[in-house]
Amino acid sequence: MHTASPHWTAVCSLADILPGTGVCALVEDRHIAIFRLAGDQLYAIDNIDPRSGASVLSRGLVGNLGEQLVVASPLYKNHFDLRTGACLETPEHSVRSYPVRLNGDSVMVAPG
Description:
Blueprint: E1 9-13, E2 21-27, E3 30-37, E4 41-46, E5 61-65, E6 68-72, E7 79-81, E8 97-98, E9 100-103, E10 106-109
Antiparallel strand pairs: 1-10, 2-3, 3-4, 4-8, 5-6, 6-7, 9-10
């Protein structure tokens, strides 16, 4: 069985994302939040808050709850796992997560 390789899209340079914060990028009509953590770890999830429909998750506070790396929505304070997009308080409000990587200094996301 042949599986398609992901289509990678450059969204910004690593220097555009301060450590411990996120940015939003529009990739193939999707609002995607990309987060940079310590050690230049990168994570990408949907930027649309499922409760409000606002494109705000990239502006949330990044931290951890136990072993889970999360972002707290700035509107309703729900916590989203940065690895999976799972909403910890209400799983039905989970968002998609996306592959993200560095290519040189360029942050790349695979939205499909």
